[in-house]
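Structure (tokenized):
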């Protein structure tokens, strides 16, 4: 078997046949982009995955476990170094906008009816984590009620997320903002055109914008 034959066999299995192996007949999978060495596992009913034209996913794992969940990856969005998207429970959403450049990203969406939304033209560095839930419950000893419900995460258009940043439930980052390396954002709502840094993160500067070019 020559190299060309090996390549096509690998490509067809990983990018075409493998994803459909796990998808059930009541699920929707639309891929107009390209997948390389990706794994997709869907368990549940009425889940949907849509990968828009020009998107390229390299070494990305997608796991959906629940019902009525939705994943949309926008046009010309790039996962260059890999990543993992995990959706658990029911009626959750992950929406990644158009022309988002991602090095390596882990998204975890759990609890019912929570979402991660990432705007267009964002830049996301390596080892970034975004979570809508703590995944486990913290219970009030007095009332027996859960204290740590999940909440949405929203990242506006044209945001730059630095290496190793963690963005936790209830966080909202305004457009044209920069999240510093290693920042841990816990439920912060930041204005547009701001720099967010620290542990826990806070707004350290406003009135800024950023450019990928070193001008």
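Design, position by position:
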């Amino acid at each position: 078997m020559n190299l060309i034959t090996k390549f096509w066999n690998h490509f067809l299995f990983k990018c075409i046949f493998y994803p459909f192996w796990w998808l059930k007949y009541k699920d929707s999978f639309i891929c107009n982009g390209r997948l390389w060495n990706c794994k997709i596992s869907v368990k549940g009913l009425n889940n949907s995955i849509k990968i828009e034209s020009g998107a390229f996913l390299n070494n990305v794992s997608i796991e959906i476990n629940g019902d009525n969940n939705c994943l949309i990856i926008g046009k010309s969005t790039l996962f260059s170094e890999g990543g993992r998207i995990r959706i658990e429970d029911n009626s959750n959403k992950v929406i990644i906008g158009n022309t988002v450049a991602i090095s390596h990203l882990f998204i975890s969406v759990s609890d019912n009816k929570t979402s991660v939304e990432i705007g267009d033209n964002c830049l996301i560095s390596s080892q970034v984590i975004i979570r809508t839930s703590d995944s486990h419950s913290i219970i009030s000893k007095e009332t027996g009620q859960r204290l740590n419900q999940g909440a949405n995460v929203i990242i506006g258009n044209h945001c730059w997320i630095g290496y190793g940043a963690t963005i936790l439930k209830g966080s909202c980052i305004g457009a044209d903002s920069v999240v510093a390396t290693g920042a841990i954002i816990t439920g912060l709502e930041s204005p547009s055109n701001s720099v967010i840094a620290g542990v826990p993160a806070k707004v350290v500067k406003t009135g800024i914008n950023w450019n990928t070019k070193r001008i």
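Reviewer-requested clarification: Residues 5-25 have pLDDT under 50 and may be disordered. The first strand starts at residue 28 and ends at 31.
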